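Postdoc handover notes: sequence design on the structure in folder B. Input tokens:
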């Protein structure tokens, strides 16, 4: 029968899902297994069809009525949830607005793209990139992450209008030697503990090597991607 054939197909899908999920390396983040909802939905449909095939006429009528009520309820709840979703990382919106406004006001005049160094930052960079580009200023990002920024933001120029370095957390307290702090957002909770601290620095365009004084050990320093140009020391 159709139900039997569908059951076999779903059974194979469940087995394939289990094998694929078992092959995940590292932490099982939600986005890695969210696709399994499709397999789960198909399994639920097959199960319900099987139960309906052996139910009485009265039972099928009751099931149909309950399904209609459930469908309406799910539709209403989904609509309400979608309307109240808001934006991703809503708690970071205030910081993004503050940083973007300060950075745009401090950018030097000129042409060419802005290069953003993301070595010491993660969450604040995408929003800052978007706000700068909304002003008609192209942005390139280094280290480049294709998944986050796409191919068009891969650095391929030797001249930039400005080079910005974004730092988060405790790194926001460290100013690159020769750099200038042009934007900062520092939020504390009621107990005075730091909730979010982000700073943006305008650095020399050729400053591509970094030595972090916190990582020095008897004169040995750790270099981050040093290739050419002057060395920028982080100082308090």
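Designed sequence:
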């Amino acid at each position: 029968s159709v139900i039997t054939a569908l059951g076999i197909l779903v059974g194979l899908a469940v087995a394939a899902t289990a094998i694929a999920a078992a092959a995940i390396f590292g932490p099982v983040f939600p986005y890695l297994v969210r696709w399994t909802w499709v397999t789960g939905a198909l399994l639920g449909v097959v199960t319900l069809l099987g139960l309906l095939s052996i139910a009485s006429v009265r039972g099928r009528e009751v099931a149909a009525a309950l399904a209609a009520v459930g469908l309406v309820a799910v539709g209403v709840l989904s609509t309400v949830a979608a309307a109240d979703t808001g934006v991703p990382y809503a708690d970071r919106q205030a910081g993004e607005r503050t940083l973007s406004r300060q950075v745009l006001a401090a950018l030097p005049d000129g042409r060419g793209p802005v290069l953003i160094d993301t070595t010491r930052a993660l969450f604040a960079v995408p929003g800052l990139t978007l706000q700068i580009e909304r002003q008609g200023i192209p942005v390139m990002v280094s280290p480049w992450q294709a998944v986050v920024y796409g191919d068009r933001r891969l650095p391929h120029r030797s001249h930039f209008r400005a080079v910005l370095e974004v730092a988060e957390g405790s790194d926001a307290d460290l100013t690159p030697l020769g750099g200038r702090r042009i934007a900062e957002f520092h939020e504390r909770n009621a107990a005075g503990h730091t909730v979010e601290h982000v700073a943006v620095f305008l650095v020399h365009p050729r400053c591509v090597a970094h030595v972090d004084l916190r990582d020095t050990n008897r004169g040995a320093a750790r270099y981050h991607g040093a290739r050419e140009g002057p060395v920028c020391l982080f100082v308090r």
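Context for whoever picks this up: The beta strands are 114-120, 139-142, 162-168, 175-176, 180-188, 194-203, 209-211, 231-235. Don't rerun without checking with the PI first.
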